[in-house]
Design goal:
about 30 residues; mainly alpha; rod-shaped
Length: about 30
């Protein structure tokens, strides 16, 4: 169960990073 929470937390931060990069690239365009 603990490992599952850790995995979800990692994927969540991954999604946030993806959103930030997408916004940044859109801003550059």
């Amino acid at each position: 169960m603990l490992s599952r929470m850790k995995r979800e937390k990692e994927s969540f931060s991954d999604v946030i990073l993806r959103m930030l990069t997408e916004r940044r690239s859109r801003s550059l365009s």
